[in-house]
Automatic annotation (TrEMBL):
Source species, domain of life: Bacteria
A Pfam family: Beta_helix
Domain Right handed beta helix residues, every copy: 148-294
InterPro entries recorded: Beta_helix (IPR039448), PbH1 (IPR006626), Pectin_lyas_fold (IPR012334), Pectin_lyase_fold/virulence (IPR011050), SO_2930-like_dom (IPR022442)
Name of the molecule in the record: Right-handed parallel beta-helix repeat-containing protein
Keywords: Signal
NCBIfam families given in the database record: beta_helix_1
Length: 404
């Protein structure tokens, strides 16, 4: 009854005009097992109509092909995410290199199932507005490997995105990645043993809070990159997270932008603007708890702005950091400073305010065309008046109602 009520709340106007109603919604239950597991599940996703629930019974699906959903206002609901009693979509034998599940429709609710060992991304949604990822697990069970899929949870080109209570492990790029999207909340989730735990890229208005990012190469990334349709990433709040022990050696394939993230990075802001990092607990990040850098790679995008702007770091708790800096020259700098560098590392580009009671090290590279090897490190005082606080993200009530 709860799901049908939630589906009614989120029912698109177009569905109402077509004569659909909550009474017409149905539950399509799919059982695991059999050589036709792929066909049964894909058929259910094709036959679903707006308002329907596709229900995954407990058990393990052995799948060889990716799945897709392009019907609006559908709930895909399993029995849980644990291996013993949950609904497990196992793609260990996947033939192609695509994602496990691709969603291209609006008002979709994904909840209570696990996706394992996809050749490509775990769960991807593209152009899917008001999508909710809730109580999901995406994992590559052999741990960190370059051959793992790039992204675990992967919404792109969307407005209104909620990632809530998901667990992602082993992604060779980012465990939870939201790109080229607007109005985003990522909360109450765990990202571990990925290259990037959580990444917000080229997006506007995002709240990342109450998550645990641990044992990744970099815990939380906020990037803006050139040559993408949506640029000028801004208004990102990273708050009340636990960001600890992100020292896993970088296992991203060569050529990926995240392959440059130093092991031991807590939060890394690159070329974004209006970013608040506050109320987080940092500990045991060997390079730095917080890094603020410009984009220092060649590009041919005349509209791209490579400098970070209006970055605020305040009211965080800082444990041990900077004892094993993994960027070029980092070990020598740490030795010259008595064995470690300060918890906040800034390359010197753009502007930032740091009001935490910790040291800040500047590499004094104000010109983003300068190579990092030309660094002239020195202590920096970035304290000062912060810009006005960013407003919090508010998602449509219909999205919040679906997880109650």
């Amino acid at each position: 009854m709860r799901v049908r009520h939630a589906a009614y709340i989120a029912l698109p106007v177009a569905a109402i005009l077509l004569g659909l109603s909550p009474a017409a919604a149905k539950t399509i239950r799919v059982e695991p097992g059999g050589v036709d597991a792929n066909e049964k599940l894909q058929e259910a996703l094709i036959l679903a109509e707006p308002g329907d629930v596709v229900e995954l019974a407990p058990g393990r699906w052995t799948l060889t092909d990716g799945l897709s959903l392009d019907v609006a206002n559908v709930t895909l609901r399993g029995a849980g995410i644990d291996d013993q009693n949950g609904s497990i979509l196992d793609f260990s034998g996947q033939q192609g290199a695509g994602e496990g599940l691709l969603v291209t429709s609006d008002d979709v609710f994904l909840t209570d199932f696990a996706v394992l060992n996809t050749k490509g991304d775990g769960i991807k949604s593209k152009g899917a507005d008001r999508i909710v990822y809730h109580q999901l697990r995406v994992e590559w069970t052999a741990g960190p490997k370059e051959t793992n899929g790039a992204y675990g949870i992967y919404p792109v080109e969307s407005t209104d995105v909620l990632v809530n209570r998901v667990v992602v492990r082993g992604a060779s790029d980012a465990g939870i990645y939201v790109g080229q999207s607007k109005n985003i909340v990522v909360r109450d989730s765990i990202a571990t043993e990925n290259v990037a735990g959580i990444e917000i890229e080229n997006s506007y208005d995002a709240d990342v809070h109450d998550n645990i990012a641990t044992k990744n190469t970099g815990g939380i990334l906020v990037f803006d990159l050139p040559s993408l349709p949506m640029q000028g990433g801004h208004n990102v709040r990273v708050f009340d997270n636990i960001v600890s022990d992100n020292n896993t050696p970088n296992f991203a394939p060569k050529g990926n932008i995240v392959a440059s993230v130093p092991a031991g990075t807590g939060v890394l802001v690159m070329a974004n603007r209006n970013v608040e990092i506050s109320g987080n607990i940092f500990d045991e990040n060997g390079t730095a708890n917080v890094m603020i850098v410009g984009y220092r790679y060649e590009h041919k995008d005349p509209k791209y702005q490579p400098l970070p702007k209006a970055i605020v770091v305040a009211d965080n708790l800082h444990g041990r950091a900077g004892y094993a800096p993994a960027f070029p020259g980092g070990a020598e700098i740490a030795a010259a400073l008595g064995g470690s560098i300060p918890p906040v590392l800034w390359d010197g580009a753009g502007d930032a305010v740091v009001n935490d009671a910790v040291g800040v090290l500047s590499l004094n590279l104000p010109d983003v065309s300068m190579p990092q090897s030309d660094a002239k490190p020195s202590p920096a005082d970035l304290s000062g008046d912060a810009p006005a606080a960013l407003p919090g993200v508010r998602l449509p009530e219909s999205m919040e109602a679906r997880i109650r």
